[in-house]
Amino acid sequence: MKRIEIFGYKWDVDFVAPENQNLRGNDGCCLFNKRLILIRNDVGKSATECILRHELTHAMLCVQGRHYQRKFDVEEVCELVAFLTPAINSIVKEVKRNERKPIQKAQ
Fold first, then answer.
1. Does residue 46 fall inside a structural domain?
2. Does pLDDT of 35 surpass 60?
3. Cα→Cα distances 27→8, 19, 78, 82, 103, Å
4. Rounded distance, CA 71 to CA 43, Å?
5. Is 65:32 a contact under the CB 8 Å cutoff?
């Protein structure tokens, strides 16, 4: 598990088995009440980074109190991308430094 900071709030990122009930069949999820991001541990590096970026966006919207907002207009989307991208890039870089080891497949 990796501890990260999102706009002053401590969150954890964990890589879990695809059978984890919190995932509900998804590749990743963001548990707002626990400040926890879960990502399947059986996807490739590229997919892992994409899933992490997706879930970080959910987490950052949560921290801003906007995670329940259903619709965003074009200007809001542009503002969010401009504001969130540097923070997301920084956190992804940090998590990648301590990246999980690949799963060893049974032979």
1. yes
2. yes
3. 26, 10, 26, 25, 16
4. 30
5. no
